[in-house]
Amino acid sequence: MLPAEPSTEVLLLQQTGTFAMIRRLIGEHGRTYVLAYAAAGLLMAVSAVATGASVSLLRPIVNGMMSASDFKHLRWLAFVTAGLYMLRGVATYGQLVIMSRTGNKIVATVQARVYDHLLRQDVDFFQTHHSSEFMARLAMAANGVRDTLQLLISSLGRDILTVIALAIVMLVEDPLMAILAISVVPVAAAALGQVIRRVRKFARRSFDGSTRIMQTMQETVLGIRIIKSFGLEETMRSRMAAAIREVQRSANRMAAGVALSGPLSDTLGGLAVAAIILYGSWRVTLANADPGSFFAFMAALLMAYEPARRLGRLNLDVQSGLVGARLIYEIIDMPAREDHTPGKPPLAVAEGRIVFEAVDFHYRAGEPVLRGLELVVEPNRMTALVGPSGAGKTTIINLIQRFYDPCAGTMRIDGQNIGEVDLASLRARIAFVSQDVFLFRGTIRDNIALGKPGATDTEIRAAASKAHAHEFISGFAAGYATSVGEQGAQLSGGQRQRIAIARAILKDAHIILLDEPTAALDSESEREVQKALDELRLGRTVVVVAHRLQTIINADTICVIEGGRAVERGTHQELIARGGSYQAFFAAQFGANTRSLLRATTEPDDDAVKRPSIAGANR
Q1: Nearest CA to 129 among 227, 226, 215?
Q2: What residue spans define the domains of the chain?
Q3: pTM
Q4: What's domain 12-332's architecture?
Q5: pLDDT by residue (tens digit) across 53-85?
Q6: What is the DSSP track for 32-67?
Q7: Bridge pairing between strands 557-562 and 565-570
Q8: Are the C-beta atoms of 504 and 432 separated by less than 8 Å?
């Protein structure tokens, strides 16, 4: 989970920080909506006063029934009672509408705040947490903030005011019976305290289980081909069943705890009511007390029971809501891991010369990926990074974009330390195309337009034409309005890749980063994508992680990366002639065909598309 286990501070907060959390919620949201809550509170007060007033009328009504001469007076009291109930209904409706709208605004604000904070985290943060954790917190836990505030406002406003109004009626009618009724409160509070601790624990477990259900469902949708190909249906069923059982078990235990509060309250309340009935009956029948007062008292007591019961459960319900609030604040309180320090100068790109100076980097301590890397990428040229898997090629691409920062050393673009420039300006001058193209929900036009928000249709079509995508897009019935499906599932790999290249062309960045852009494509798709790449590289600094031979030999410069270092540099012909690491890498990829391929790639060949690829040589 996120985090895997709650931190010491979070556990302490869960155990002793209820009031601190409530103060924070009120401080962050109560003040913002103070006018709305004040209006709701005023309407709650009107409802409470109307309730108390309607009950207080019972005494003259009951006593009036004893005398036929008071019928006209009773008729007036009946109309007043009806008016009071209408007033209470209107006030209740108004406060519910205000509270609902305010609560929905709070949820929207919290969700936007959490999402914005997540965007400020670095790539490593997302690679170490499952996406379903964020989805669950954003979709479900944000409601905990709203629910807690709603409970507090409604209980402190509606329920407390109603109980106070009815308690005043009871004290006026019979002080002794009122004291007897109130004496139940501390006993009920002590009994509910034990229930609260159990409910809080199971509420957290239930949320964690719900997150695992979302995680399993997401993995099923995204990995359905693997599941069916490997016959993993039963494995996934078992995994989902385990998560569902955990949620069911926790929900049942939480429900049992919540339900236990009802019998406790009912039993104690019933004993108090029984005692009051016995005492009141004795007073009316044997002590000649006013029967109207007794009826008014009993009505006030019975009407106060439900709001008093809700107040008794307030801590229980608030603790359930605070589980979601705490999960939200676990994210909000995480420091932003990306450098968005204001005031840094923007990156000024004149040529696009990239220099790595003694750069060290590791993803995990003790497992270095780059070791003192010295690398120069010349401007307006295409530099191919080749080497064995794990050598650090993709890491170089990541570091240029500052998805990660180096552990030591410096990276410069046109002499500027990229760690000291504005991060947004750095990325604005870079376009990235990866092997695993990600397309967002929407149309082809929407996805290309991400390269330049606000781009015209003419600009989008021009970019698609340069990417050799316009022809296949025009072949769709809906053209550029064609939906790409989830993650581009409606398109082929080559089509997705060309849309990504069109997006990069539209961005018109000076620096282009390509991570194995043709590695997973068939020959026909590779030819089309290669044409698009030729358009993309014109007049730009291009760094490409390459395995395909066609991509490698088309590069102006090839840099061989081994063990986190740049060990060779030159053109394809120069490196082959040198007989070093590049030739060994080349030979390892092609095996028995090495000599013929070496001869073919060092001789002029106008039909470049017929050259085999490193990725395909071992097939």
Answers
A1: 215
A2: 12-332
A3: 0.71
A4: Up-down Bundle (1.20)
A5: 877 777 777 766 666 555 666 677 778 888 888
A6: TTHHHHHHHHHHHHHHHHHHHHHHHTHHHHHHHHT-
A7: antiparallel
A8: yes
